[in-house]
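Thread: quick sanity check before group meeting

JM: Hey all, I'm pulling together slides for Thursday and realized we never actually wrote out the predicted structure for the chain we discussed last week. Dropping the sequence here so it's in one place. If anyone has concerns about the input, flag it before I start.
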Amino acid sequence: MDYKVCGIDDPYNRDVKFEKEYEDWTSAQDKAVQLLEDDVEWVQILINKEGSWGLLQELNLERGIVGKHFNTHILAPYYVRLRNYER
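JM (edit): ok, ran it. Output follows.
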């Protein structure tokens, strides 16, 4: 599967400041965390299934990106453990 990371500075206008595709979800999450730490306000990770892009994650540091149960607004628990990423 392919993943696309989009860095968005304005969540209302969806003004994309960064966009790149990755073959690996872990690499996509690495880039998402880097963008957030570089002060990009919102980051979306999209997944390409059957030729169509769909939202997998939408991350924002103010809202929080680490939690106990995976949902679209936090990093995957395996990723948090893998990178020892705690906020």
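AS: nice. The helical segments are 25-37, 77-82. The chain has a mean pLDDT of 89.
JM: adding both to the slides.
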